[in-house]
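Residues and backbone
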Amino acid sequence: MKRFHVHAHVHDLQASIAFYSRLFGAAPSRVEADYAKWMLDDPRINFAISTRGGAPGVDHLGIQVDDAAELAELKARAAAAEGPVLDEGETTCCYARSEKHWVTDPQGIAWEHFHTLDSIPVFSERAVAATAATVPAAASACCAPATASTAAAAPVRGKPVGVAVKSAGGCC
């Protein structure tokens, strides 16, 4: 079964957690120093907020699936829609290990299709490894915006090239 996903950037995580908890009538299912997520069944949504961005607002939309077959179906649909598709495969971001791909609509809105495989204790294992290797912070962030020079080689953000990115450090 599929679950709609929205990820928004916020300035004040605690105020936003309080607001959305009252709005949804439920506490978040996961809270970290820079991130909170609600896995709601009514409506069926994975709603995440984080302070890993610049201007507040919606970062991207998505669909979370329960198995690899549903993910393959969404990938086929994304390819048929003829938007640029970026297949990340297995990756880590947002305190989770997932299999995912991205597609961008004609207006530049990023859509993430993903199957969550496991929970992890850090925002991104890639960011932790890069930081340990003393890579510059902008390049080490899990979902830092890809520049024109890095996008062609290996997009760091995880979104298809051409997606408008609000600021460094944003993520899924």
Q: What stands out?
A: The beta strands are 3-9, 30-32, 35-41, 44-50, 57-65, 85-93, 96-104, 110-119. Residues 68-80 form the longest helix (13 residues). Residues 132-172 have pLDDT under 50 and may be disordered. Residues 3-121 form a domain with the 2,3-Dihydroxybiphenyl 1,2-Dioxygenase; domain 1 fold (CATH 3.10.180.10).
